[in-house]
């Protein structure tokens, strides 16, 4: 059968991986797809590298706009990244009636609503398995595998850099700054790591999963985002003593009031499978009302793991590209006319449990004052450690886990506790999820 | 849009779950599928229970053959189980041009080749996500999510009963017989547990995954099957001391010589995520050449988890049922004309590592004799425990882990070791997989 022709935009890490996996496994992929999938043209600014990688097996150009207008191209694979030129290219490809496969989470999180509307109007597919959690087929699981369910929540370790850093901080008892340098040396963190360590990358991915899970429009601009750069190794240790592990989770949850959409360091019980996802690995835990909890685990980044997702999309599009649009899986899992506009909840309205660490003067009555304030806000305490002060030390630390409460209540309590004479310095507040 | 009409065969546990999840989440499912999915007729021998469960919302009958011939039925859902009447019904439904959704692993493992050929000829779909690992969308992951990959191997905990029993044996230090009775009391094991505890159920599921992974025809009749009924609690303890956990794994692996297809108790390193899958949960670890290892975890049985998979298939079939067959995902992942016939390897040719436990007379020279025999077969030792004999005891135990070797070599060595004067009783031999 006639091969399908792919125009590849960008042959960096993921583009290079896609090119080489297609070459290596092309025969087996064709046996699955029903026809060969071939890269017919590659656009990249670095023509010399592009020629070296493609070895005359296809055309090369430095003009990406020529590729999205090329009449011989059936599917455009956008692996340039960023959300300016990439957006123009994707919209132009759609306008030209091309199907698009992309790994660009920033683009979809910010401009997905516009892009999917354009694709819908033109009757083309925009596939994006590679945009979330690399090679793990989590988009497929959410959009197709769990269609029977009312999805209740999703909690994911969806940034390998931060998970690597947290694993190392715990294992070796080192500080964030020291481990970040090590991660940069090993290539697990970028020279400018802000995007990863401050949780922005995770929030992009979370926004995409949230839209698909709830049939809601993409709401990245309303996500609450906290990273791990302020996390103290002492809190990782105390959490362990209490039976918890700290992970940077992306959490989205449907409540009767709206949708929670938040990325922040989170205590989770050590006995949960997801608490044991170590190093640069990714995992997504999904709670559906019928299936219960399911978990998806694998490499969330890297050339070939991400290429695995790009090519899975290519096979899907190859199978479906001549079919009526009605036969295809909707871009955001729900039919375009069946999307809803659920409000994203402000963090003050989120209900969860909390870990608090207070530095206090070592004298009687302090604990009574603190617990009185918590009780006034109807916050009850689940567990507590009071560190024994060392010989001659006049201050000590109290660590508490609370039961569930609304974030505005804990914040009100913290303000009052911080104003107590006996309380010294800032109060550490981390969120805790049981994930049951 | 016009609803799609489902004929449900069997309204027991899974049928009842399917009926009630469709009722509860029908509106949300229609928003995904693009049209309502409604059960229009249910066939079950127990008419009274059927009427009670369906509450006049659809027709009921005790004649399943009438349903598969019913012109108003678009999709037949077969949840009767077994492989005699169910086979006739499925083949009849296909002959009548109906699409089929089934959870029947025994039927597909034994008669899948015939059923898929009939469906292919007639241009209908046979969907079977629910046949493997309950609500975990593992069939979709293998058939669609990982299409870029040359799949190297799959290792799965795909029987909840046995995983529950092994978890309890380890946690509580109890024997198989005691825990089995407890599992039966809790409803985790059938009154006749043979099918589960002897590994047959796991082998059915493994055969289906193996065919999909490698594009091979269904080869259940050649699977090697060992259960857990002979497993001694002592070996679970020794394995723990050595850093391993014992799980009943279904393993299928592509080698240059053929396909390994085997179910047996297996030692796996405790630090692997899959080693920490406890109780009745299921998990499948898949190694692809591009994506690396990915893991899928969730409930492998039960009314609603299995219904989740049945209904996901119903949504897929609903979307695709008027599309050209060429647009659909092939039944066994590879196009029918691109299937191969890889040989299934006899166990003697399988290469893996081993755990050995020997009861020996407590005297010098025994260990030298044993290691000499292993060396003669080119088997090297990775770790060893020699239990200190108690005061006055004349026998002791030696536990060894070997490096990889061919099964015929270890068996030859065991025969020679067993004939040594100093070796008392049977030698325990378990297989060990690193799963990397």
UniProtKB/TrEMBL annotation, chains A, B:
Record-listed NADPH binding positions: 105
Domain ACT: 355-431
EC category name: oxidoreductase
InterPro entries reported in the protein's UniProt record: ACT-like_dom_sf, ACT_dom, Asp/hSer_DH_NAD-bd, HDH, HDH_cat, HDH_CS, NAD(P)-bd_dom_sf
CDD domains: ACT_HSDH-Hom
Names of the cofactor(s): a metal cation
Top-level taxon in the UniProt lineage: Bacteria
GO molecular function, one term: metal ion binding
Keyword tags: Amino-acid biosynthesis, Metal-binding, Methionine biosynthesis, NAD, NADP, Oxidoreductase, Threonine biosynthesis
Pfam families per record: ACT, Homoserine_dh, NAD_binding_3
Active site: 205
Pathway annotation from the record: Amino-acid biosynthesis; L-methionine biosynthesis via de novo pathway; L-homoserine from L-aspartate: step 3/3; Amino-acid biosynthesis; L-threonine biosynthesis; L-threonine from L-aspartate: step 3/5
Record-level GO BP terms: methionine biosynthetic process; threonine biosynthetic process
EC annotation from Swiss-Prot or TrEMBL: 1.1.1.3
Residues the record lists as binding L-homoserine: 190
Keyword Lyase: no
Binding, NADP(+): 9-16
SUPFAM superfamilies: ACT-like (SSF55021), Glyceraldehyde-3-phosphate dehydrogenase-like, C-terminal domain (SSF55347), NAD(P)-binding Rossmann-fold domains (SSF51735)
NCBIfam families tied to this protein: PRK06349.1
Protein family according to the UniProt entry: Belongs to the homoserine dehydrogenase family.
Entry-linked PANTHER family: HOMOSERINE DEHYDROGENASE
Identification of the protein by name: Homoserine dehydrogenase
GN (gene name): hom
